[in-house]
Design brief:
- The longest helix is centred in the N-terminal third of the chain and has 14 residues.
- The strands form 3 sheets. Strands 1-2-3-4 form a 4-stranded mixed beta sheet. Strands 5-6 form a two-stranded antiparallel sheet.
- With 211 residues, the chain is an alpha+beta fold.
Length: 211
């Protein structure tokens, strides 16, 4: 564990993920606390808070404290909460044949200026399975051979929103029908962006694989 001025940070692996305690996210956060939370996110890529009890309004207030803007409704198939439309519900029913975002992906990378981050609040969890996994793409970059790094530095990637729904383009989307992909082509037409394959994190300065 690493004790800072305001919070306790406990790394969960060698590269990715840290658990933060000694903070109540339902309450207004001091500036020093926010700075330390943001630093932990920059260091570990994903951060986790346990046993938090938040209303939708408190979740939005926490996200806005870190400059996370609302998700535009047209970039997602998820409905927003009636009382807090910025929050999209991720649900899984008994007869669902696939889950939402159940493949490796980056949120909002098809935007010219992607989101700083996402805030996921778990309300109901299964007793086992259904795990969300995270990969630290700065650590992945650092593990590349010098020759491969040099090659990738010269390349850019086109991030296309509708391609996430194509089983032919995205192997992880095998459960998505051709009809759904056809609808996505219309709904998300023109929603794409070009980013360097190796980017630089704007706050940590670390190189990151971005695809």
């Amino acid at each position: 564990k690493m004790k800072n001025t305001a919070i306790t940070v406990r790394p969960l692996s060698a590269h990715t993920g840290a658990e933060i305690s000694d903070v109540d996210l339902s309450q207004p956060l001091a500036e020093q606390t926010c700075l330390e939370i943001r630093q932990a996110l920059n260091d570990w890529g994903a951060i986790f808070f346990r046993e938090q009890v938040l209303t939708p309004a408190q979740q939005v207030a926490f996200a806005r404290r870190f400059g996370i803007a609302e998700i535009d409704a047209h970039v997602t198939n998820m409905a927003g909460l009636e009382e807090q439309p910025e929050i999209k519900e991720v649900t899984r029913e008994a007869d669902d044949v696939r889950n939402i975002g159940g493949f490796w992906h980056m949120d909002q990378s098809f935007n010219a200026h992607p989101s700083f981050g996402s805030v996921l609040y778990a309300r109901e969890l299964p007793p086992y399975g259904g795990d969300t996994m995270f990969a630290h793409l700065s650590a992945a970059h650092d593990a590349l051979s010098p020759g491969l790094r040099a090659t990738l530095e010269t390349l850019s990637c086109v991030h296309v929103r509708s391609h996430a729904d194509s089983a032919a383009i995205n192997p992880a989307a095998s459960g998505i029908s051709a009809e759904t992909y056809a609808e996505s082509l219309i709904k998300f037409a023109g929603m794409e962006a070009i980013h360097p394959v190796i980017a630089q994190h704007p706050e940590s300065g670390r190189k990151v694989l971005y695809f």
